[in-house]
C-alpha cells in the first residue's frame, strides 16, 4: 500500500489529490497466495460494482451511506492495482494498536454491517450472478488454495506448545485438544464454508477485524462513522461468518461476555428494518434464526481468536510478514512461539478456550 499525491490541472488551475495505491505483490509467498486465491479480481469487483449497487439501493430509500473508501481507479495491466481516496483528509483513521472494541464502539460497526448484509441479500435476489466470485470460501479443498491454510494448523499447534511449556498443569488437557484440533482445523474450516442454499445468505466481508476498519471520531473521541476496507476474502454465505469473526476477533472480553446478545439484537433490528425498507421478497430472518446461524458458524470465532488476535495484540509488528507465519524454519517457529506467549494474549485466550471447549468447538 502506497500513499501518494496526484497532481492535475482543471481549467488552468493546479490541483492536488492524496490517494492510496494498493498493488499486488510481484513475488514471494504473498504474491502466490493472492494470485491462486483470485484475491484482486474479488476486491476489484466489490469496489467497482457491488458496493455501488448497495449504496444506490439505500440512497433510493433516503438512507445515504458509504460502506468503504471510494475507489477511483482499478487495473489489471500492467499491474493489478486499486486506487482509493485517502480518507485521512476526511478525518478517518485506524483504531489504536493493541486495543479491542467496547460496546459503544461496536454499535456503529454492527449497524453498518447489518445494512451491508441486508443490501447484498437484496442485490443477490435481483442479480445472483454478481456473487459468482464469492461463492467459494477462503478455506476450501480447492488444491489451488492451500498455500495459506497451514497458518491455522501452526496457530493451534503453537498455542498447544506454549500451554504445555508455560501454563499451569491444569491446562494440559486443553493443550492436548488443541494438538488434535491442529490436525483437523482446516477440514473444520472447509465445513464452516459449506453454504446452505435454503438459509438466509449475505455477502460477508470475511475478514472483519480491527485492522480492516477505518474510524471517524468526534471531539469527544466517540465514533461518528466507520468504513470497511480490504475485501479480498469476501464470501457469500451465512451472516454468522462475519458476526463470529468480529465478536471473537475484535471485541474486548467485557463487551463480548456482557453485551453479546444485546449487540446481536441491535444487529438484527437493523438488518430486518433494512430488508423491509428494500422490499426483500423472501422471509426475513428472525432474531432466533440469527442466533442459530452464529452457533452453526461458531468455528469462525475460534479461527479469529487463534489466527488474528495474536497479531492484533503483538507489541512489535515490524518483522511480521506472511512468510514468517507460514515457514517451517527455526526462526519462524520462535517468532510464532513468542507471538502466542504474549501475556496480553494469554489473558485474552484463557477465558475463550474454556468457552470454546464448553461449546464443543475443540472436539475432534
From TrEMBL:
Residue intervals of the CHK kinase-like domain: 82-277
Database matches in Pfam families: EcKL
SMART domains: CHK
InterPro entries: CHK_kinase-like (IPR015897), EcKL (IPR004119), Kinase-like_dom_sf (IPR011009)
Classification via PANTHER family: CHK KINASE-LIKE DOMAIN-CONTAINING PROTEIN (PTHR11012:SF19), PROTEIN KINASE-LIKE DOMAIN-CONTAINING (PTHR11012)
Entry protein name: CLUMA_CG011999, isoform A
Record organism: Clunio marinus
Amino acid at each position: 500500500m502506497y500513499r501518494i499525491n496526484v497532481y492535475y490541472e482543471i481549467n488552468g488551475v493546479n490541483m492536488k489529490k492524496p490517494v492510496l495505491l494498493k498493488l499486488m505483490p510481484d513475488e514471494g509467498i504473498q504474491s502466490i497466495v493472492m494470485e491462486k486465491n483470485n484475491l484482486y479480481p474479488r476486491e476489484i469487483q466489490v469496489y467497482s460494482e457491488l458496493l455501488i449497487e448497495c449504496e444506490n439501493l439505500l440512497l433510493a430509500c433516503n438512507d445515504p451511506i458509504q460502506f468503504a473508501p471510494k475507489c477511483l481507479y482499478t487495473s489489471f495491466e500492467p499491474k493489478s492495482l486499486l486506487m482509493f481516496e485517502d480518507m485521512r483528509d476526511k478525518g478517518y483513521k485506524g483504531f489504536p494498536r493493541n486495543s479491542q472494541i467496547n460496546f459503544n464502539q461496536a454499535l456503529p460497526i454492527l449497524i453498518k454491517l447489518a445494512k451491508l448484509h441486508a443490501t447484498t441479500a437484496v442485490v443477490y435476489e435481483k442479480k445472483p450472478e454478481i456473487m459468482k466470485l464469492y461463492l467459494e470460501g477462503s478455506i476450501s479443498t480447492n488444491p489451488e488454495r492451500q498455500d495459506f491454510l497451514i497458518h491455522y494448523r501452526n496457530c493451534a499447534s503453537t498455542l498447544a506448545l506454549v500451554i504445555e511449556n508455560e501454563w499451569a498443569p491444569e491446562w494440559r488437557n486443553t493443550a492436548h485438544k488443541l494438538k488434535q484440533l491442529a490436525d483437523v482445523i482446516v477440514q473444520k474450516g472447509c465445513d464452516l464454508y459449506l453454504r446452505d442454499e435454503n438459509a438466509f445468505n449475505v455477502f460477508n466481508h470475511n475478514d472483519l477485524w480491527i485492522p480492516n476498519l477505518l474510524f471517524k471520531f468526534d471531539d469527544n473521541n466517540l465514533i461518528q462513522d466507520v468504513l470497511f476496507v480490504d475485501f479480498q476474502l469476501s464470501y457469500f454465505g451465512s451472516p454468522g461468518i462475519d458476526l463470529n469473526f468480529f465478536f471473537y476477533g475484535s471485541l474486548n472480553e467485557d463487551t463480548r461476555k456482557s453485551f453479546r446478545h444485546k449487540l446481536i439484537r441491535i444487529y438484527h433490528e437493523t438488518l430486518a428494518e433494512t430488508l423491509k425498507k428494500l422490499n426483500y421478497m423472501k422471509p426475513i430472518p428472525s432474531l432466533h434464526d440469527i442466533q442459530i446461524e452464529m452457533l452453526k458458524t461458531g468455528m469462525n470465532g475460534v479461527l479469529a481468536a487463534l489466527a488474528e488476535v495474536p497479531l492484533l495484540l503483538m507489541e512489535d509488528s515490524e518483522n511480521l510478514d506472511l512468510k514468517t507465519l507460514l515457514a517451517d524454519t527455526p526462526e519462524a517457529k520462535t517468532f510464532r512461539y513468542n507471538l502466542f506467549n504474549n501475556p496480553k494474549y494469554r489473558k485474552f485466550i484463557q477465558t475463550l478456550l474454556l468457552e470454546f471447549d464448553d461449546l464443543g468447538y475443540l472436539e475432534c
